[in-house]
Automatic annotation (TrEMBL):
Pfam families, A to Z: DUF3108_like
Organism expressing this protein natively: Hymenobacter persicinus
Keyword ATP-binding: no
Domain of life (superkingdom): Bacteria
Domain annotation DUF3108: ranges: 57-256
Keywords: Signal
Designated name of the protein: DUF3108 domain-containing protein
Record's signal peptide: 1-18
């Protein structure tokens, strides 16, 4: 079964251990958005995340037909000190689960978000698409995620660093291919503006980028696909909506924040 390319998207927010009986994509709980915390305190709880908190994103195709859900659950918040012990970085360990419209679990993975000073970094593995490795059987995969930066105070017109995932495919004796999914040419184009979702209405910045998926078997041979992506980013919550456009310029996929559940 083909996985939605949205599994690769930033995202952001989060997920988790698979639920025993996952809710139907058509009945995701709608909740009112809570007041957004001051940006100055964002690194204490990046994107307003707390232990056991859960977020649900509803996935749809270009015709607005449901294709599944992406769920995140916060497992643990922690902190790290740099070697000089002069800077503290907040860490958030998450588990994500991708489900199809029949509530079947398609993919799970662990993610780590970080926040330091004025920037939150989402795990580059949010861009990873498991479909990209299906043709490689009985191989060794070395993952090298590149964190994706989200400023707590975005500036209109600013360029954001690239990020995503790179996977080296190899056997025990030789490298075979390099598979990557990267968010490139990221730029804050406008905002803030109100964006309405089933989980509430949020003040968002519009961030445009190009997502390049590449499989490179040799130095002179690479297969690439590039699509246009628009993220609607609320600094206190994360990305609340993502739109992906196909080669023809038409909307192909959407990911929308459907529910936020506080930790128990």
């Amino acid at each position: 079964m083909k996985l939605p390319a949205l599994l690769a998207l930033p995202l952001l927010a989060l997920a988790a251990r698979a639920q025993t009986t996952p809710p139907s994509p058509d009945t995701a709980t709608t909740v009112a958005s809570a007041p957004e915390p001051a940006v100055e305190t964002a690194c204490a709880h990046p994107f307003g995340l707390y232990d056991n908190m859960e977020l649900v994103y509803r996935l749809t195709n270009g015709a607005s037909k449901p294709t599944g859900e992406l769920r995140y659950r916060v497992v643990r918040l922690g902190s790290e000190l740099n070697k000089k012990k002069t800077r503290t970085t907040t860490t958030v360990l998450l588990k994500s689960g991708l489900y199809d419209v029949k509530n079947r679990l398609l993919h799970q993975q662990d993610l780590t978000f970080r926040c330091s000073r004025d920037t939150t970094f989402t795990d580059g593995l949010t861009q990873f698409n498991p479909e990209s490795l299906k043709s490689f059987r009985e191989r060794i995969f070395d993952f090298a995620p590149i964190n994706i930066a989200w400023p707590n105070r975005p500036t209109i017109g600013s360029r954001l660093p690239d990020g995503g995932s790179v996977v080296q495919v190899r056997s025990s004796a030789v490298d075979i291919a390099k598979v990557s999914t990267l968010a490139q040419k990221r730029r804050v184009v406008s905002g803030p503006e109100a964006v309405k979702t089933p989980a509430g209405t949020f003040q968002c910045y519009k961030v445009e980028s190009e997502r390049e998926s590449s499989t490179k078997a040799r130095a002179d041979v690479a297969f690439r696909t590039t699509v246009r992506v628009i993220d609607y980013y609320a600094p206190a919550v994360g990305v609340v909506k993502t739109e992906i456009f196909g080669k023809n310029g038409k909307l192909a996929e959407t990911r929308t924040l459907a529910a936020i559940s506080k930790g128990k």
